[in-house]
Amino acid sequence: DSGVTQTPKHLITATGQRVTLRCSPRSGDLSVYWYQQSLDQGLQFLIQYYNGEERAKGNILERFSAQQFPDLHSELNLSSLELGDSALYFCASGRGATEQFFGPGTRLTVL
Amino acid sequence: ELKVEQNPLFLSMQEGKNYTIYCNYSTTSDRLYWYRQDPGKSLESLFVLLSNGAVKQEGRLMASLDTKARLSTLHITAAVHDLSATYFCAAEASNDHKLSFGAGTTVTVRA
Fold this sequence. Notes:
The structure holds two protein chains of two kinds. Chain A has strands at residues 5-7, 10-13, 19-24, 31-38, 42-50, 53-57, 64-68, 74-78, 87-94, 101-102, 106-110. Chain A is mostly beta strands.
């Protein structure tokens, strides 16, 4: 157990819908990273937050957004969902320039 | 952009034999990580390599890093069935700490 929690574990929804994925970092970690794992794209970095502020952006679609709240939990919002958005979404946390620890992931299925 | 290439992508191992997985990355990186992923599960951290010449060992797995060649290797000694999984290497970008992952090596150990 890495200490990073993600909810929900599984999410099944329809195309065009919007969902929110939640991540709670390890105690004391200020950084939260979001990654997407899909069969065709592999593991891709989406976005990073550090103490509430966006730090880095990767291959994140405009339909996706994220934020980190004062209590340091983070949410990833996915809207206008398409079939191709079906993937495992991982959150990782760390303390700046230290190792990242991964949560259990949220499996999103878009039908 | 930091690119990571991993090979082979698939590795069928015979129990008791030794094998190596290779990981090349394109530009300077602060850290090199090795992760293990079982089907449908999260990423389990195996090794973090910080400097040139770093070597770390845990059980039958040994990882090394050559920063001049931008190459890391994961060596498996006397493979056993429990090592069947997908192994990922990831390089950490110096400026924003985001991880760039290789495509993964799916390892199957047969008797």
